[in-house]
């Protein structure tokens, strides 16, 4: 266990990345819902396809976050505190339920983008699927923040967390990172942004290099002109 020689206190993991991921997932679930609610029959395929492409990136980030939790962070915590204390079975079941819900949104958005489809029925189906996915997601994030993350803070050391985060970064495909870096930075407040660039200095340049790529997808969430 790593402790500060000056204070004798154990150094805690930096939770900035997971905080930003959860914050970005929550914010963009709401923004996706707003963008989807605003489309009409004349937005097919155009704006609907753009929302679908943005959703594809959003889903990619959520899939990756869950993979890192399933393969790295959750096993490390379970080894320390036991699976029951951190509600591992429930969290894992929620990951699986979300996989199904995420695919349903994908299917519904694809159906809605077809100009030959029944707009009213397809729109209602897509809105309902996104709403169902969001409900599962919010319940999942809340459970994780209530049970797993507080234990992670007290039972995993800062050094162990740095090692796990380094492995997660290494296991992040380049295409996912291209979207993820500007996605997290644009959802950060000023203090979080400063802390992020200070803790991982290359992110500042990678943010600027990938911002245009990110905006190409994110533009679909802006209110219609
Ligand atoms: Fe999770
Ligand atoms: Fe999470």
How would you portray this structure in words?
The protein is mainly alpha-helical. The protein has one domain (16-221): Four Helix Bundle (Hemerythrin (Met), subunit A), CATH 1.20.120. 77% of the residues lie in helices and 0% in strands. It is built from eight helices and no strands. It has helices at 16-37, 46-81, 88-112, 119-155, 158-170, 174-187, 190-199, 202-218. Helix 1 runs antiparallel to helix 4, helix 2 runs antiparallel to helix 3 (88-112) and helix 3 packs antiparallel against helix 4. The longest helix is centred in the middle third of the chain and has 37 residues, at 119-155. It is globular and about 60 Å long. Bound molecules: fe (ii) ion (FE2) (2 copies). The site of one fe (ii) ion has 6 residues, from helix 2, helix 3 and helix 4.
